[in-house]
Amino acid sequence: MHTITLLLSQELETSSKGGLFDFNATLPLMALQFLGLTILLNFIYYKPVISILDDREEYIKNSLTSASASLVKADELTKTYETELADSRKSAQRIIKDAQLEAQLIVSENIKEAQKDAENLLSDAYNQLSVQKDNALKSLEVQVDILSDQIQQKLLNN
Length: 158
Prior knowledge:
Elements: H1 2-18, H2 26-157
């Protein structure tokens, strides 16, 4: 029995000798296994994922660049249209002002012509009335002379 205990104690000493850090052939094998799995994962998983992420990043950059370019172009077009609109409004206001001035001139000329025509009609009417008055006075004078002659003759005849 003593031999069995002795053998067990020797075996315990040899098995506990290496412990957690046993530097035998398993360590390089574990290192090779780790490197192999790393390389395998790199080719199978990491490269496609990195490729997809790079493609996505490039797509996002291109989209942002094209969106920025479109935004700049839209801003330029907006400014261009705003300046054209402002110019159009100014020219429309100028045309309206010119048309109003022209209309006022035409109206004032028409009013002046109407006043002249009215003055001419009044002077013609006054002249005609003066002529008619003179004619009426002359005819009345003639009639008065005739009547006075008749009255005289009647008075003298009596």
